[in-house]
């Protein structure tokens, strides 16, 4: 399975910050947002799909959150990563995605390589209409393992992503490879 580079479907539009004193969206509210958005069949069908790489369109998320509609060609994935201090939710709108995640919280900074203990891996298969919310520092990878079918998903994060840490994994060894910031995705 290859991890294809992302190909933007359109330019990004900044999400305005939450109004001062406004409540910040919870994981449950982000999950409800991605659920409602994924049910918008016209929006889902409007996403340009590329046969080679992921495509995305930035959406207006609730309460100043960052939201994305993402298209996944067959055989693509994100690689291991986290969303730093952001909580989030994602839901498969069409097709099926697989999420591999770690159930242990990792140190947030100050390390390059960790040896993971046995039993901390979790696998989820998320078909259309299925999704999940997650907390800060959630380490996972998302994959479209289909050899024939695109998948489309909706994602939301709060606060808007301050950084993404990307990891490589060989067996039980996880290595920090790169730290990306928002300006890297614009």
From TrEMBL:
Low complexity composition bias: residue spans: 1-16
Protein family according to the UniProt entry: Belongs to the cysteine dioxygenase family.
InterPro entries noted in UniProt: CDO_1, RmlC-like_jellyroll, RmlC_Cupin_sf
Annotated source species: Streptomyces apricus
Region ranges (Disordered): 1-26
Keywords for this protein: Dioxygenase, Iron, Metal-binding, Oxidoreductase
A Pfam family per the record: CDO_I
Identification of the protein by name: Cysteine dioxygenase
UniProt: Fe cation binding residues: 81, 83, 140
Domain of life: Bacteria
Molecular function, one GO term: oxidoreductase activity, acting on single donors with incorporation of molecular oxygen, incorporation of two atoms of oxygen
